[in-house]
Amino acid sequence: MSPIIHHDISSLREALQPYRGQQHDKQERQQRIALVPTMGNLHDGHLELVRIAKQYADVVVVSIFVNPTQFGVGEDFDSYPRTLNADVAKLATISTDYVFAPSIDAMYPVLPPPTTVLAGDIANQLCGQSRPGHFDGVGIVVSKLFNIVQPDVAVFGQKDYQQLAIIKQLVRDLSYPINIIGAPIVRADDGLALSSRNQYLSADERQIAPVLHQALQEFALQLKRTDLSQQAFDQLLVDTRARISDTGFIIDYLEVKTEALGSVVSDSTTFNTENKNIVILVAAWLGRARLLDNQLVVIN
Hints:
Oligomer: single chain
Order of helices and strands: EHEHEHEHHHEHEHHHEHEE
Number of strands: 9
Largest sheet: 6 strands, parallel
Number of helices: 11
Helix content: 25-40%
Shape: globular
Strand content: 15-25%
């Protein structure tokens, strides 16, 4: 069954209101609502987010909105693929309940909006260094979606690791009664993390792209060595950067961080003695495509 599409805020709120009301039969519970925010151009990774959402809720709303406030000058806002009809057809195959596809005017009566939701220090690293203001744009659109849908659960992919950490912080600090679910990265058979921007890759670049994940896997394997010296740790960073760059990538960043992104892991003793969970994060350009990936490492 095809999802019901809403383009304006009031009609979506009206459609969702009955699910929040108390049931006449006291044995029936109030139904739970899940939100899966997307910018459209959906792929199997997005569909997996919806499948996960269905495990936690009775009703699933997928938002499709290319959010202008999270794009910087010279980025691909104008060219970002807008494929609403194809997206709805894909969502119909997994019985999605509602699609919220608002216009820019519906979401932002004034643009740029005079009200801001600042992401704070966690946004001033990694992607935030090369995309200033990006996560503030994410913060306001996600806050608006939370207020519009009022979900019990929201599902985000772990590929955008920094974004997920910022959203968890937002929910905590603004006291949203929402359970945030981080969904594992969905990958192609060769290991490339699925992304809407993968379509920017040429055929030759697509053959190269899995190197990013392969390099992180090898990096993670070496980090789990309990006898890793400081010299070996430093050399491992150098070698991993070289492996990625030598295949044609232009690296934006490659860093080892604590799991909550609180600090950089810059030496072997830090993760061997203080942090049982760390994460390797990378962003790198391959042609027109800026690819993200990460690898969580559990140090036993």
